[in-house]
Specification:
This protein is an alpha+beta fold and 198 residues long. It has a single domain, classed as Nucleoside Triphosphate Pyrophosphohydrolase (Alpha-Beta Complex). It is built from five helices and ten strands. Strands 1, 2, 3, 4, 5, 6, 9 and 10 form an eight-stranded mixed β-sheet that branches. Strands 7-8 form a two-stranded antiparallel sheet. α4 packs antiparallel against α5. The longest helix is centred in the N-terminal third of the chain and has 16 residues. The chain is globular.
Length: 198
């Protein structure tokens, strides 16, 4: 694959951001090294064609006073979860995160609290069927951004991906998710990190 133009520039910008990112804990330190290594060794790291691991972007969406978190009820995982999606060839992962929030929650006014990376994760994805097609187990190499939206704006589901969209207090969000690993390793971390952004 030949890397040209904006793709190469955005890819290098993201790699630089990841390198500068100061890990929050041991998990992020290990995942930072894994993500950098994978991007550097795989030209197709931003494509689902790489069936072993590929880049994704997630959004931890809060309201203006940081008292609520936006979540969707994910159809595949059958749990309340954060918003986000596959890079699908896009190397500007902040743009991916914002786009996914708009698509998944039906809101138009969403903006970054910061354009810097908020969190890093490597996430295991169990095998599943999507749109009638079998998808083997793989890794999502994930970059998370802290975004802000108006909790009064009307939300709507994206029926092919989720069946609920709602704002919760951070404490409620931790209780609503039925994925223990995500609650303990990801969402609890994001709740704690958000406190420093008040």
């Amino acid at each position: 694959m030949i890397l040209e133009g904006n793709y190469a520039m955005n890819r290098q910008k993201l790699v630089s951001q990841i390198r500068r990112y100061v890990p929050y804990n041991e998990q992020e330190e290990a995942d930072k090294a894994l993500i950098l290594n994978w991007i550097e060794k795989n030209d197709d790291a931003f494509l689902r064609d790489n069936v072993v691991a590929h880049m994704t972007a997630s959004a931890w969406v809060v309201d203006k006073d940081r008292s609520k978190v936006l979540m969707v009820y994910h159809n595949i995982y059958r749990s309340w979860s954060w918003l986000g999606g596959h890079a699908d060839g896009e190397t500007d992962l902040l743009a991916v995160a914002i786009r996914e929030v708009k698509e998944e929650a039906g809101i138009s006014d969403v903006r970054p609290v910061s354009e810097e990376i908020f969190s890093l994760e490597s996430l295991t994805v169990d095998e599943h069927v999507k749109k009638g097609r079998y998808v083997s187990s793989h890794l999502h190499l994930n970059v998370t951004y802290l975004l802000e939206a108006d909790s009064e704006e009307q939300v709507s589901v994206k029926a092919d991906e989720n069946s609920g969209v709602a704002w919760f207090t951070p404490e409620e969000a931790l209780k609503k998710s039925t994925e223990p690993w995500f609650v303990e390793r990801v969402y609890a971390k994001l709740v704690e990190k958000t406190k420093s952004w008040r």
